[in-house]
Amino acid sequence: MNEFIFWAREQLRVDKKLLLLYCIVYFLWGMGMDWFGTQVEIARFTHWWQVLTVYVLYMVPISLLLRKLPFHAQYAYGLIAMGLLEFGGYALGSSYAYPDNVLDQFFNIRNFSLAMALFFALYFPLGNWGVGKLYGFLFKRA
C-alpha cells in the first residue's frame, strides 16, 4: 500500500498550470456533454454542479494518475472508474437517463449504463492526450 501511495503522490505532483488546464478543459467538456445529453435526451446530471464533482474532482485526479500509461491501460483503468461512477450515479439518482433514449433503443435498457461506461472510459486517454497537446502548445514553446 505504501508503494501505491508513493506512486500516486508522484503522479499527482504536477505543474499548477497543467492542473489548472486539466480543470478548465474537463469542466468545459463536462458542461458540454451535460448540455448535449440533455438536448438529445440521452442522460443528464440532476444538478449542474455535478459537473464539478464528476469532471473536476473525480476525473481530473484519475486522469493525472493514468496519464503516463499506454492508451489501452488508461482505457482499462478508466473503464473501472467510469463503471463505478455510472453505476453509482444511476443507483443514487444523481444522474437521470431519459426513458426510451437513443441508447436504450440501440443497446436496450439493460445495457445503457454499460454503454455509457464504455464510452466515457475513452475520456481518460483522450483527455490526457488533448490536455498534453494543449499544455505543450501553450506553455512549452521555446
Protein model, in words:
This protein is mainly alpha-helical and 142 residues long. It has one domain (2-139). It is built from seven helices and two strands, in the order H-H-E-H-H-E-H-H-H. The chain has helices at 2-12, 16-39, 50-66, 71-92, 102-107, 112-120, 123-139; strands spanning 43-45, 95-97. Strands 1-2 form a two-stranded antiparallel sheet. The protein is globular. The relative contact order is 0.15.
Provide key terms for this protein.
mainly alpha; globular; two-stranded antiparallel sheet; 142 residues
Report the principal-axis shape.
Answer: globular
Which regions contain 5 or more consecutive residues with pLDDT less than 50? Answer: none
Whole-angstrom Rg: 16 Å
On the 0 to 100 scale, the average pLDDT is 93
- Distance between termini? 40 Å
Cross-sheet strand order for the largest sheet: 1-2
Q: How big a fraction of the residues is strand?
A: under 5%
Assembly of the depicted chains: single chain
How many separate structural domains? 1
Per-chain topology:
Elements lengths: L1 H11 L3 H24 L3 E3 L4 H17 L4 H22 L2 E3 L4 H6 L4 H9 L2 H17 L3
Antiparallel strand pairs: 1-2
Write a compact overview of the structure shown.
The protein has 142 residues and is mainly alpha-helical. The protein has helices at residues 2-12, 16-39, 50-66, 71-92, 102-107, 112-120, 123-139, and strands spanning 43-45, 95-97.
